[in-house]
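Example (one chain per record):
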Amino acid sequence: MRKNIVAGNWKMNKTFEEADDLLFDLAESLKDLELENEEVIVCPPAIYLEMSTDVGLENNFAVGAQNCASEASGAYTGEISAAMLKSLEVQYCIVGHSERRKYYHETHEDLEKKVNLLLDNDISPIFCCGEVLEERESEKHFDIIKAQISESLFGLNAEELLNIVIAYEPVWAIGTGKTASSAQAQEMHAFIRGLLSEKYGTEVANEITILYGGSCNAKNAQELFSQNDVDGGLIGGASLKAEDFLAIIKSF
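Predicted structure:
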């Protein structure tokens, strides 16, 4: 049975003291929460990963990085390798977030390399895919998602794929206050699961967690999570306050 996941992407937010306070508040909030088939993941800026894993390992949440290098090691100033993340006991890593694709021009090949390096280091990639408004309005959104997934993930075998979490981000709904309707989210999530089924079979496809990542918040999470193929959310701004994040976690 696939997991339900709520992952909080802090992006480039929080000072050290603010991050410490948020981790403590989150740990306290989750302390008495019974999670059965649900998992909570916190993805802070890289400089807070060690602090986060120290807290997470003793409390009720896993820790993910927001990015990793596309090379294993070497003269890449400022980069952080998958092996470095493993040494900090990081369990997940976001790959191909729409902001990385847009601002840092990450290609399908770059993301394929990152996915493989993470898997080699026993870290589960949270692989992001999504279309911009122009692509949706011109009805190219299914083609865009198919290309993003097939060109970066379809080199994996079924066993490797089972360690992947996919996050669908309608880019037009990130940071805009807009949200895909629950029907739109379900339609795309079902399409993604169908792609996986065609390549790997229905049994494998039904084990893959697919998250919704477009302005999900405490008000709309329950409706979104009630859809058959929506297995949780990759949460941005609403993960920066423990109270808001907890409300989303309780939406299953």
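Caption: The chain is about 40% helix and 15% strand.
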